[in-house]
Each structure stands twice: as C-alpha cells, then as structure tokens.
Amino acid sequence: MTLFEDRSKALLNRQAPLATRMRPQALEDFVGQEKLVGPGRVVRQMIERDRIHSMILWGPPGSGKTTLAQLISGVTKSHFVELSAVTSGVRD
User: Fold this and answer.
1) What is the DSSP-derived secondary structure letter of residue 27?
2) Domains held by the chain: number
3) CATH number at residue 42
C-alpha cells in the first residue's frame, strides 16, 4: 500500500457516516443478540466452525443486521452478497 492509498482510505473513513466509523470490528465487540452470538449459541458456533448457512437478517433499523453480516463476512471464508431491499427490485 502506498502513502497515497493510506491517505485516501483515511479521508474516506473520516467522510463515512458515524455509524460506519463506530461499527465493531470484531465479534467480541458486538453488543446485543446474545441468544444468537453469545458463547455456545447457534450463530457463534457457525462462525467459529466457518460453516455459515444461508440466512436472512431481518429486524428494525439499528438492530445490528449489517454489522453482524460484515463481522461474519470478515471472519469466515464464506461468499457474501449484500442486498438492500431499499435499492433492489423484483429481478434481484
């Protein structure tokens, strides 16, 4: 990585929304949803074993859906496709 790439990423990070900048970077920093990602729980076990099944994360805004998906994507070797109901259509 060059000096200019580092500077460019830093600038993008500063311009990103606060929620994006403050998002947890590790599963240990993820707060909430203990029934799913707590020690020994279903989703936590799938992540630790790197055996992620197809899933749809559904819930109200701010409940951690995107954060959890990004954390799983970063930790596992699974292929992820990000799809937003706001910007997608029937063909997607």
Assistant:
1) G
2) 1
3) 3.40.50.300
Spatial distance between the Cα atoms of 59 and 50, rounded to a whole number of angstroms:
24
Q: How far apart are CA 7 and CA 15, in angstroms?
A: 12
Residues 6+ apart with CB under 8 A from 52: 46, 72, 76, 78
Cα-atom radius of gyration of the chain, to the nearest Å?
15
- The token duo for 33 is 């949803």
Global pTM value: 0.72
Each residue of 34-59: pLDDT tens digit?
A: 998 999 999 999 999 999 988 888 89
Q: Which domain holds residue 85?
A: 25-92
Q: Which among 86, 49, 48 is positioned nearest to 66, based on CA atoms? A: 86
